[in-house]
Amino acid sequence: MTVFWLKKREISFPDPELANEDGFLAAGGDLRVERLLLAYKNGIFPWYNPGEVIQWWCPKERYLLFPGKIHVSRSMKKYMKKHELKLTVNRDFRDTMHRCRMKREEEGTWIGNDMEQAYYALHKAGYAVSAEVWEDGELAGGLYGVSIGACFFGESMYSEKENGSKAALILFSEQLLEQGVLFIDCQFHTNHLERMGGQYVSWEEYKRLLQSGLKNN
Q: What's the CA gap between 107 and 114, in Å, rounded?
């Protein structure tokens, strides 16, 4: 397996086409804002365990959600009618990301201190976004990701109440649709996302969507 090592002083990546079958592309470098933006604009993202060297990934088959095609189950529709739900955006980015981290600590998380600091810097630069949903006035769940042009790259979600993360994704997707966002890049498949309408797209289709979404950025 070929491993491409990135230099901290040089902000660049190998051709995404060179990623391994599992999506692994490169290691090293850093998490500065400029590198993260270059990564996302090329379909690349960091994913590694805290304390390990930074790893960069670019799966050839991508798992996407389309804002206008989110599947809302009958049980979710009943839940959403039963409660007063309110969406907020960027209420407290650091808090939202940290909650995502804490909810996954027991099962293992890729969100370490360096990731929290890096994405907060990305947030201050205007690219990383958090969304939170409130159920009858109480925080129910949220998510965060990276927004560039008409592309949204989802990173993680959390729930404080049952259905919290689902409600956050549904309501936030409605807002993304209004803003003309083409897709939500989920990166990898999960059963949760599949039930909400997620689907695989080919690398060629993903590149086309990515280029279209970044056209005016």
A: 19
